[in-house]
Amino acid sequence: MASHKKMDLLGISAFCESLGMMVKAGIPITEAIGLMAKGSESKGALKDALIDMEKRIDTGSSLAQSMKETDIFPEYAVRMIEAGESTGKLEDILFRLSDYYREQNTIAKKIRSVIIYPTAMVVMIIVVLLIMLFAVLPSFSDVYRTLTGSLSSGSYSYINIAYIFCWVVLAIMVILVVLILIGFAMWKGNGKKSIEKILSKNATCRGLLEDMALYRFTSAYEVFLASGEMQDEAVLNALSMTDYEPVEEKIKQVARRMEEGVGFAHAANDVELYEPIYGRMLIPGERSGNTDDVLRRLIELLAKDCSNQTERLVSTIEPLLSGILMITIAIALLSVMLPLIGIMNSIG
What is the pTM of this model? Predict the structure, then answer.
């Protein structure tokens, strides 16, 4: 049995944490998987996968192999579990994976907010413009046309300015929505690298992409080290989890420096993989034998940086779109009110 519906990040985190707690309690893997299957929802891909995993483990498959064959777990989780089984550190790896995917879920939510909120604001602006163009402005036009016979005379020509302005802004907003949809489709498809290059032209977006890539790499590197791998092997294995070309190139430079006999901390500091303040944390940690503790602290700081960069991006976009919305409404209303003021003055 193989399911192609992947588990979400929070689901993977919960799975790893639950299994880790059972392993810590001394429950055999087969029995732990069976208990999780019974406690799962009555139907669904996860329950089917757990039942299938229990059968495979009973027939001699490893936990990692059974997870891989269900096809609902990401490759990273499978590789980490495999490393944990081979080094006897399965319990520790499970809890680390749980923390990793929980934090990834938090970051993913923030990233979605960066996309959803501006899109919602743009759609709101489009709705307001459509109301102005097909309800508000025509009503005022009919009134003024009745009074003057023409919108081109005197101060009543202002309403034509409102029409032009609203149509121009509407065209810009529609183009923006189309570009967002195209960008989203490319990001999900084969155009992710192209979108990253475009986003990298903005300093805030570039910082966010770099921080996320460094967070993924450092988290993977720390877990690979915990599984018992050597530093150079851990760097190469964690490289595939980075998923951002500029950071990948720096990590490759780190790997080349390590081939020359330089430790990870000094190599990372030499190529400026991390911010100087973070890079300097690694060297004393490596010298004192506290690399694991320093890496965990570094992961926390990188996660916080990702969160801060995301909030900074939202705080930049929010007032910009809100300003466009308010200016559009203000200009449109002012354009239709000026003729009314002219009428009142002429009556007075």
Answer: 0.72
